[in-house]
Fold these 2 entries.
Entry 1:
Amino acid sequence: MKPPKLFLLIAVLVAFTGQAQVQNRIVIPDINGYKTLQCDFHIHTVFSDGLVWPTVRINEAYREGLDAISITEHLEYRPFSKDVTGSHNRAYEIAKPTADSRNVILIKGSEITRSMPPGHFNAIFLNDSEALAKDDWRESFAEAKRQNAFIFWNHPGWDAQQPDTTLWWKEHTEIYDKGWMHGIEVVNEKTYYEEAFQWALDKKLTILGNSDIHEPIQTDYDFAAGEHRATTLVFAKARTPEAIREALDNRRTAVYHKDLLIGEEQYLRQIFDNSIEITNISQGNNSITVTVFNKSGLTFKLKKTAHDKNVVYFREYEVKPHSRHSLTIRFTGANDGKLNFEVTNLLVKPGKGLHCSYNLN
Amino acid sequence: MKPPKLFLLIAVLVAFTGQAQVQNRIVIPDINGYKTLQCDFHIHTVFSDGLVWPTVRINEAYREGLDAISITEHLEYRPFSKDVTGSHNRAYEIAKPTADSRNVILIKGSEITRSMPPGHFNAIFLNDSEALAKDDWRESFAEAKRQNAFIFWNHPGWDAQQPDTTLWWKEHTEIYDKGWMHGIEVVNEKTYYEEAFQWALDKKLTILGNSDIHEPIQTDYDFAAGEHRATTLVFAKARTPEAIREALDNRRTAVYHKDLLIGEEQYLRQIFDNSIEITNISQGNNSITVTVFNKSGLTFKLKKTAHDKNVVYFREYEVKPHSRHSLTIRFTGANDGKLNFEVTNLLVKPGKGLHCSYNLN
Amino acid sequence: MKPPKLFLLIAVLVAFTGQAQVQNRIVIPDINGYKTLQCDFHIHTVFSDGLVWPTVRINEAYREGLDAISITEHLEYRPFSKDVTGSHNRAYEIAKPTADSRNVILIKGSEITRSMPPGHFNAIFLNDSEALAKDDWRESFAEAKRQNAFIFWNHPGWDAQQPDTTLWWKEHTEIYDKGWMHGIEVVNEKTYYEEAFQWALDKKLTILGNSDIHEPIQTDYDFAAGEHRATTLVFAKARTPEAIREALDNRRTAVYHKDLLIGEEQYLRQIFDNSIEITNISQGNNSITVTVFNKSGLTFKLKKTAHDKNVVYFREYEVKPHSRHSLTIRFTGANDGKLNFEVTNLLVKPGKGLHCSYNLN
Amino acid sequence: MKPPKLFLLIAVLVAFTGQAQVQNRIVIPDINGYKTLQCDFHIHTVFSDGLVWPTVRINEAYREGLDAISITEHLEYRPFSKDVTGSHNRAYEIAKPTADSRNVILIKGSEITRSMPPGHFNAIFLNDSEALAKDDWRESFAEAKRQNAFIFWNHPGWDAQQPDTTLWWKEHTEIYDKGWMHGIEVVNEKTYYEEAFQWALDKKLTILGNSDIHEPIQTDYDFAAGEHRATTLVFAKARTPEAIREALDNRRTAVYHKDLLIGEEQYLRQIFDNSIEITNISQGNNSITVTVFNKSGLTFKLKKTAHDKNVVYFREYEVKPHSRHSLTIRFTGANDGKLNFEVTNLLVKPGKGLHCSYNLN
């Protein structure tokens, strides 16, 4: 007899902990056959050198509409350990109930934190972080491998460890050859490492981009100004931990960083195609006007390539998020030609945007 | 043979007038049986004393996602007439093609602009504004009536015309008795006229709230800070001029002004009920936790009424737009009681919010 | 061999935090003879039930341009104590070096956290928080008094403890009579307690308003939308801890909460007078135009009082922060009269704004 | 009897526009010996194909804190001329009183609007725009020259006129040789023309950047997101029309566009040096920490150049506006070396940022 009455309880409310959470997920379309999950696999809390309690990281992810995160405390660097005690598994344990209630996927991870070489690596999909705390870094990697972790190299060109140039050391070859390196951060925090992107393409490493956040997230990102943390886009068969792992193992990822998408052409082209919808085409005498709607929360920066004097259109054009654009192509000669442009902020190789070409006749 | 190729023209673009328009309509739910249309029936351009070209008003409305507007130039006050010539119908004529292309309903109107009494009145759903330009205000009203216009009193308590108190003059009784006054602005620009709201309820006048905008809209409203112009919510059977007129004639309106909704209880209660969705209820030992989702873009300000010591809940609570809230009601005695609150920003009478009461047993 | 490597590692981790800090202090003018200091005396961190590391609180205060804060952990409620150990003095000790480097005054405090009566109290200007941890609340108060603390009642009408009405219990009379209550929170977090304001005026208690922040500050306040935490304005002879204490002891405070200033008329009038500068007066035939500049970051909401039919001016007028306003007063009879208005958001008593009256002849 | 009433009515309508104007000037420092004036010399209103009344342009400039503007209507293109009549001098005449009251310098100008070649040119510092309305463009230029105008080429690479590449036609050589071209827009609206920047450097033309605004300014620029119109920075001996003209004649300008400054090294270096203040230097064992304060509203993007393995510092670093930054430089060898970086958003040549080098010993 309670349920019906409670159903009438329309807008209720109350008491000690009225929590309001506004969600602002950036709309990024799914691609053919896969869900596009937004993930951050590199995060800190007071259990290493981060500045917030672990549950805060879940609420941040929830507000940003992230699908999955990993809290990856430094194993070897815990500056607050005099006051904050507990095992390397504690941050995960504390955050897990909040993650469950918020429907954020939480993946257990740790950061192996060494001087260069080999530098810092994250191991995620761990069972027991504590077992990775070893004196010899090779033993830490071996233990991560034993736990069937997914392991990736963090911020390969970090100023502090690679002050001059971004180098691949012989130790990285060793790690790679032993099957201890599955991915690499192409973006960490606010820095994009072009060399790492090339390595990922050449050596078939999974491409990752993560926030490595230490502060409360809003301290480093001005959400009101449209900023967002770097995320790894995972093209997964489902929104589950297992499906994320499968996608990581098969390199189906891209990185979303500032207004850049970074990844293989096959994925970026699908994101572009699934973002833009043609809503109207009207033929003029010597022109065509096309109205398009950008359904996504992404910006696309177009730049004319392979000029054709007979087809007059933008030199550069910015397609803003969630907006409608009416664009006219003028013909100065015959009513045909090609429309060629590059989407300069969709990087399919270092320095190279996604190229598009359409026949107009 | 062109169409298939053009269909491939995915994201095209171009040339002289690439117009980007981002739409930011405030989500206000429909009510049972009617669409909730967002309208502004009081607007100026350079064809009287406004400061923009008529097409600008359409683009402003489009960006805000308004359904219908009326450009209502002063018949008797055209300070720019030395430079801006043309009949009282010109602003409408110039704006109409843009309105059509933007799918904004444009209703022809004019403002009868006299000193007090009777002050300023808008006549909308006109055929010919020019015919209203008469020396005697009674003739202007009579002509509007002949054209079957919908006529309403503007800003009844405007400082400039009613400096001391908001009075209903004998001329208003005359106008009302002759069937020349169908509605009244309860809100004009940024001012809410409490007396006008009471008159509307007592005399069965249609309730209106309009911007009376003269500047570019962004000069007067800081959209980034969440501000919006005052609008008349019209509960119409369809999104057509005819359905708007039918709803106005039958007084199915409310006003949305700052964070206030102003109108009859029957409409405001439906907006509240259709905005708030219960997504979860969990029973504790001595408490209930209810999770609600506010689907609308409206804020609701709740205030406890009719206190019951056995039921512990918020004194005041703000339900923000598009947000999820988990709220706990604690029982100090038996697990029942009543939950009573007023939604203080949904005004059903001057100074009186919408009252809600729910049984908890 | 490892230690040197780790030492190098740590140095590197610390060395590269290039920290950018933008300061956005709200401009509130000094009053005659005193500096207006912006303070928050009620703040939590992970050392009780707050969610950030103590140094974060300093950086938050720094960015907002606060002059002084007090971190006031619950003595009796430490839900994270399994993981976060350390004495009741730890949060202060950890935050102090950052406070010094940021030039934020940090005042040692603690929160005595009991069920009602007597509820929660803050004791600030403590020497040793640890000594206040007593079973009997009377002993905690007595110890605070022994340390010469400044003690105030927190959130007197908190829903959770005073569900029905805001009551002054006999225990509060006891505390007051023993000299254990020097002030009272008229605003806590986002709630203004009108009864507490009246008590403060009647019983000569110091008026305080504080954030009681637990989350990262940006989670609860949307700074981009112009929101700010509640602060206690302290009118002090200098920007020093001693001068703050002297001002608190002599009740020279007010509260800044949302767009309200709450306090005694003598202080609010000076803030109003020192915010508004008349930059020009021009005489028309039947009017005066006054141009004023609001030098402060405060909004002032004016409402006409004591109407005079011969002097025509605004019914309501909002003076925005850092803005210039040209206002015309029209005379319908003789060119004189009085300009009377209330500043409705400067509360000098519960429900009563600051009244202003100027002769115009 | 009516006239007096109407007269009263008009007075009333005018009297009560209580105008609030918040000014948000971007802080750009003066350089040695000159004031840095922020100017926009390319603006439209309803008197050609703009969409606002001329006074709106003054209020926009006032709110943005601009020092000087020029309203430059098309002589040959007036699509609203059926409704908006009046000479080519009218926009100036209407705007002038508002400009005077707002203390915005208004410079009379016109746009000579021809197909390519020679395209569009602005002539400013005119006496009589009407006299420039000639069939032959050479006569328009000659008349502008007779009036001692300052003449510059607008948007030299505009898509609509130069669809493929940005070309300098023989007509431009003719114009240049006749002394009819004194400057060139390196930035127009939102587009930067790299070729034009090179021409300006090679041919000693004055560098200009202007908005060419047609819409209400807020429609094209999201001020809340930190956007601003392109402006010409004029380094003038005083804030007067004469001093602006003298500076234009002597090429003392730069362009501020998005986060770019574009101009000669001598001016950009002074702006950088006068923006950044070193507030503290502290010596560590193997490091120096430098605290700098960016006093300006500009962002500076630093990028390491000429790497030195012994000096470890940022690869890239962004100095935000009005912010304090603590930067640590670590020495791995001897405690000296050079700090080399490029300010990549201060363009002293096409594609080349301002280079800085400091000795650290």
Entry 2:
Amino acid sequence: MKLWQKKTKLNPRIEAFTVGDDPVLDMKLVKYDCRASIAHAKMLEKAGILDPNESKQIESALKKIIELHDSGHFIIEKDQEDCHTAIENHLTESLGELGKKIHTARSRNDQVLAALRLYYLDEISRIESAIHDFLRAMHDLLKRHGSIQIPGFTHTRKAMVSSVALWAAGYAESMADNLRLVHTSRDLMDQSPMGTGAGYGIPLDIDREYAAALAGFSRIQQHATYVQLSRGKLESTLVHTLTQVMLDLNRLASDLILFSEPTFGFFILPADFCTGSSIMPQKKNPDVLELVRAHYHRILANEIQLKTQTGNLISGYHRDMQTTKKPVMESLDLTLNSIAIMTLVAETLDVDKEKCAAGLTPELFATERVYELVRQGMPFRDAYRKIGGEFE
Amino acid sequence: MKLWQKKTKLNPRIEAFTVGDDPVLDMKLVKYDCRASIAHAKMLEKAGILDPNESKQIESALKKIIELHDSGHFIIEKDQEDCHTAIENHLTESLGELGKKIHTARSRNDQVLAALRLYYLDEISRIESAIHDFLRAMHDLLKRHGSIQIPGFTHTRKAMVSSVALWAAGYAESMADNLRLVHTSRDLMDQSPMGTGAGYGIPLDIDREYAAALAGFSRIQQHATYVQLSRGKLESTLVHTLTQVMLDLNRLASDLILFSEPTFGFFILPADFCTGSSIMPQKKNPDVLELVRAHYHRILANEIQLKTQTGNLISGYHRDMQTTKKPVMESLDLTLNSIAIMTLVAETLDVDKEKCAAGLTPELFATERVYELVRQGMPFRDAYRKIGGEFE
Amino acid sequence: MKLWQKKTKLNPRIEAFTVGDDPVLDMKLVKYDCRASIAHAKMLEKAGILDPNESKQIESALKKIIELHDSGHFIIEKDQEDCHTAIENHLTESLGELGKKIHTARSRNDQVLAALRLYYLDEISRIESAIHDFLRAMHDLLKRHGSIQIPGFTHTRKAMVSSVALWAAGYAESMADNLRLVHTSRDLMDQSPMGTGAGYGIPLDIDREYAAALAGFSRIQQHATYVQLSRGKLESTLVHTLTQVMLDLNRLASDLILFSEPTFGFFILPADFCTGSSIMPQKKNPDVLELVRAHYHRILANEIQLKTQTGNLISGYHRDMQTTKKPVMESLDLTLNSIAIMTLVAETLDVDKEKCAAGLTPELFATERVYELVRQGMPFRDAYRKIGGEFE
Amino acid sequence: MKLWQKKTKLNPRIEAFTVGDDPVLDMKLVKYDCRASIAHAKMLEKAGILDPNESKQIESALKKIIELHDSGHFIIEKDQEDCHTAIENHLTESLGELGKKIHTARSRNDQVLAALRLYYLDEISRIESAIHDFLRAMHDLLKRHGSIQIPGFTHTRKAMVSSVALWAAGYAESMADNLRLVHTSRDLMDQSPMGTGAGYGIPLDIDREYAAALAGFSRIQQHATYVQLSRGKLESTLVHTLTQVMLDLNRLASDLILFSEPTFGFFILPADFCTGSSIMPQKKNPDVLELVRAHYHRILANEIQLKTQTGNLISGYHRDMQTTKKPVMESLDLTLNSIAIMTLVAETLDVDKEKCAAGLTPELFATERVYELVRQGMPFRDAYRKIGGEFE
């Protein structure tokens, strides 16, 4: 039975269409919904809707659901639509009349968002810690091979002498700067929607700050209408952040794909990282890097979906917003996996000193020769033209 | 065992990362791969690689796999990566040495594409027939309620008198025009990649036209290099086509959402199409329409992924291209479901005559009054200014 | 004075904001608007709104405007908003009362679209002929250097032997296939909106086919409501087509950038095509190719704008749609310029035989060696594993 | 003469193609380039490349250029490509040999970025102050009309009673939260690229912090390679920020468009904000709001361009990156104009009390009636079903 079920039954084709993937996707949200519901019950106790004993019973029933879920025994049926219904139904079954009180002072709308945001906040912490692992791996790579000189390119043409250190440090600095965005994403996401109902508040006197603090939020969204305006929007800043992380990995993968190609051969991927071809027996292909490169585009597409979906709509909740869940979840998974795999790559990457040395062809030193003349007092532009003449 | 497996085993974390969703997604491709492989075997017979008896054995083994799959007994193991490996492994198990010959004159590269395109071509036919069903339903709607007058809007402001007929016919004409794109998508997709190997041909004398015709393709891609350039590209035209279909449905859903809102109330959705709210007991929400509207954006995002993924890459196959499969499959599913559900909506939609009549307020007739004056001989611009004066 | 001007003057800040770039962009449309207006006047004559003499006068006044425009003397003032107002005002000034009749049986809405579509159709012809020039240049390149062997790559790794012929022919075949989309774009665009007014028809008996044929359209859009649904939509198919052309050029440019890099050095760009660096005197940079590569992304972004802009909107005209003009115009310009410049590149490209020969390293021949064993009777998969053993 | 000009002249067609719009776009950068160049000259003085007198001369010549530019007399010729060349050429003309020294210890690459970032930082301040103006206007609106009750909608259906205060406060809170992103954008942008040359440093001992501080940057990018990785990337965070601001305005405009439509009629736009129709004399169209709504999509498209352009490219500068300038500039202009115009709308918006009262139909009070029963002790879900029965 659905939370909103009354006499008329939903047409079965419409039901199949509207339920979609939710029962599967929501398995990730069960524990967060229970956690928020425990906070909600304590707030209802403070408001006098539940007595202390009732609140306790609800808390222990919700903890039981978390245990069931952890052991793989909590199931969301198709006709329950989502985890929120499954959990309320479970409460009503185990607690009888008391279960019917848990939805007081909330709507599924703010309930869904509370669970989603607690989940997103946990994932953001995972992203942050994965970035720190990556930075450590890049630093180790830099310590292992940093002093080896390699050609620096501009316009895919040899430009000036670079080094493994300069190359790796650039990526590390860029990735470290991404943490600023990660923190802003968290600051924006870390706002409680609890107690805003369907976007126009609850006609009861409740303590929203209290519920928020118990659930683990740092602050509340003041105005119920902002909660609905922020749905999909805060997610889009989160996924934007993921695209920035992934862009760095995309560029890093692009470098490694090209410069481990044997004609250059500066970098060497471990043999057991490479896949083969079904027709060409010699092939050692960097599929792992190509997939990291590719995932950038998937995540970018997800961001675009988030951003176009709510455009041109009036304010207030629309069902369209529920489809923002899947692209965010997918983007988080792909990003976490990609950071972890590139950390593994950084940890195991080898550098071929001889190939690097062979790559240091004379044109890479032209600018240094200009600067020798500058140090001897020649105006820069004259020195530039003098050396440039040799290359025409 | 993978098709390209040699001595070195793939690192398990790399393997998990690279295999991804393929074993699940590829369940849709099993029968198409078998169908193309039967054609391939016959071509090998013609080329003298297989004798007629061998070709027969392979054909019946592949038909057996189709049966297994139809009855839900064909399984793709994670370590087989994809349906192509699972099928070749199955052949080798059942046919011994003979199974090792099936991959002659092809690469997994052209094999995958052949199966995908046969699948896409079948789906395109399904889309086409779903569109025809939709057109029929719109035509019936027009016959049921066409003569009822409704306000026509520009700038979300009442403009001139329209009718259910004019409203529905505009959508039908737009949808019918989409069929031109559907056909172009099919023409582009209906090209055989078979026998182009990894993108540089096969060092054997083979009859590509023969294999193509047996598999059901109308023509072949002449140059092996084009096959790789077209991967993701032909798909992007297909998904562009889907976005055009979905844009019409998005606009249609937008009209129905607004004009079934009781303040206007021109249209009435069946009660069993509407969902409720967990907090507001009176709500009858058009979730089904909102989700159709939302799916447009998912499909558009998928198109963008297809288009950005291969940009800036040199020619020749890259593993990145394999990630184009999921967004195309998802877009086809969502579009087919959305057309079907909007067909159901069109079949059951009701029109509220009284609300429509009440909506026909005087300003809708201002332009007709201008034209009365024009018919009496007044220059248009003067008539316009005369009537316009009344509204200032 | 604006076409819709009555007593209330528009707030000057609002006016500046709403007029935007139109006076500049519309300079491209003047002659197309005049051409459509001549057809419109003849249709009004047929409908008895104008007498033959009036129609003649209007025709010659409009031809005069085309002349003025061709000689650079037709100006669109900011306060006229757009070319349509400027032209009607000009007619009213030169023809007095008669000028006030020209807007009979049309709205600026269908008028704008008629001019835009005639302009787009002309541009589509230019694109088509630019593609033919490009195909000729690729064919000449193939004749000059086709027989030179080059490495074929997959996964940015050497795969099998290719040739300049196979490489160039793949691009040519891909570009030729784009013509199918070009033709579909034209078929869709080649529909007259004339006489549909603001999207709900004209309260007069007019011959829309007659006007369409005179203006040069092949058919009419039957239902006035379809005209508004198609705005931005037909444009998005056109710009999708441009992205397909540009993707081929993006990939071609990517090949040329990498393989003219001296480490590979297969291709040589003319010296006077390369730009330098302000600091590194040796640099010869392929900016021209990098910009072609980049323009793909601009045009793709423009397509996305077209596709997201009208999503989630109810049917009927919205001012939002007017902002579709700029991205289409820009995309057409960039595509035409890019095809022309890549034609020039193809015409002048040189191939370095020695560098190509040096690139043909042994692993490129591994597959051929497998097939030698196949020809001797060994099952493919055994031959593959035998040769593969040498590369582990 | 270009900075990198040597003997070979660029092919004129290539030159026209590569120069593109830069001479026009760069007019916005002249003063920022001069400001950064003054800092650069002082750094060169500190490094002993220039003596104090030379540095002074350069400073006063650059200030002269700013004056020329402010008075409209500084021109960038097509063959100078960009403002950087025009400025260096001007210095060389006015200072002779000394002018040839200014380019010591920099590349056009870091020079362009320094000027662009100083310009972006100024624009970010303008955005921030425009947001504060908007917040003030919304606050005034709230004070003028906040107490008026209006219907709150979910799923475009009446949900619960809202008010002008709750409606306006939601937008204000959302916009205020955007300031967090504005600040993060600034923090990321506020990093000096000066002295990193073409991305691989300068072979001279220079004080990058000194130059950065003089130019007005808070910190430097430590590694020259990061500078190139950040090009386009930092811009994409800036434009993402603009999309968040614009999404709020898009939603606000959507509300105002629908709810100022006379059937609802809650809001009233000033008459001199509305445009008319060329055919329908009664029309008062909210073009201004529709254009704000539309600009969201343009800016989103620009963000996508920034994000796809550098994907799949190896590290190091590519000319592609230069095309990121135009979409950022355009996005800043459109956003600033849109905030300003919506501030004007908020300042002048009227609310129709009677229409609002008429909109408060009974179903809006159903949830309050549920909560009356809850306050009397009925479990929420029972109360919900009791009241819900009345609406079936």
